[in-house]
Design brief:
This protein is an alpha+beta fold. Helix content is 44%, strand content 17%.
Amino acid sequence: MEEVIISLKKFKTSKELAKLLARLDGGGGQDYNVSTNLLRLYQEDLIDRSEYLAIRAKVLMGHYFGRMRQCYPDLRGGLYFYDMDALRIWNASVAHFPDMFNEYTQGLSVEQDVPDRSPAPVYTSHAFGIEDVRRSDHPIAANHREMYEQASIQSFVTLPLLNGTESIGYQFISARCPRAFMEAELTFFSSASEYLIRELASIKPFMIRQLEQSR
């Protein structure tokens, strides 16, 4: 935690903050005792409210992915923001995926995933799954097949992150082998992520600005 305090004192630019947030492992590996010290940083004006909420959300995501790994060790997951105006997807978490899959961190254009007369890809508003990426003829599987194969993703399911009626993005949960995702699994992921949605909704504009500035 002292390293975090020193970094926050020394670096106040957006780019340095983005680097700091990236060091908070979204896989739950480290949380630097943030839960007991983060509020103190905010109260001492070392971070502003947006920064406070962003770091808090990073820690909560780490706990969420840690729980996922305990219950479903064969699955990998990530959380993504959807920018409706730019038709781009942004990586909201430090997902445990190979680097080539995380071009989402740079803002991946998903125009090709948006059907005619639709405001957004289906995966931002409804559960959507592909049981076998290699054999699927669905346009979304075809659009990203090469990237999925490079990341050893052979099946996946997405679940929207709904803040009331507004979608702020989606969960992406994948496996290295073809498989169907059971109703009990989808219920677990939806229920376990509910506590994150309000946190993520409050920081979405801030986080997208940080990601854009750090490109």
